[in-house]
Specification:
Blueprint (H helix, E strand, L loop, with lengths): L17 H9 L44 H10 L13
Length: about 90
């Protein structure tokens, strides 16, 4: 997204967990591109802004035990695969 906007970001501190990413932003140590779901992490001084055009996508993976017959796992996988609507749209924050 940065390259298509015409600039190359300087990478500094990096984190894997979104809570840590948001804490680094809160501490004034940078900015981040993040999925809309991260808006739920409320930290003082952290602002979330939608970026347009909204065509950025990423891959998501799931892992589970192959022989797991737990109905919650089955339901989760059905929702994750899009077989069952969640009642939310992509525009929902």
């Amino acid at each position: 997204m940065c390259r298509s906007a015409g600039f190359e970001p300087r990478l500094g501190r990096q984190a894997i967990e979104w809570q840590t990413v948001c804490a680094l932003v809160e501490a004034g140590l940078g900015v981040s591109l993040a999925p809309a779901s991260i808006r739920r992490i409320r930290l003082k001084g952290v602002a979330y802004r939608r970026i347009e055009p909204n065509d950025a996508r990423t891959a998501v993976a799931a892992a589970w035990r192959r022989d797991d017959r737990n109905p919650l796992v089955t339901r989760f996988l059905e929702v994750a695969r899009g077989e069952i609507p969640t009642g939310r749209s992509e525009a929902d924050p």
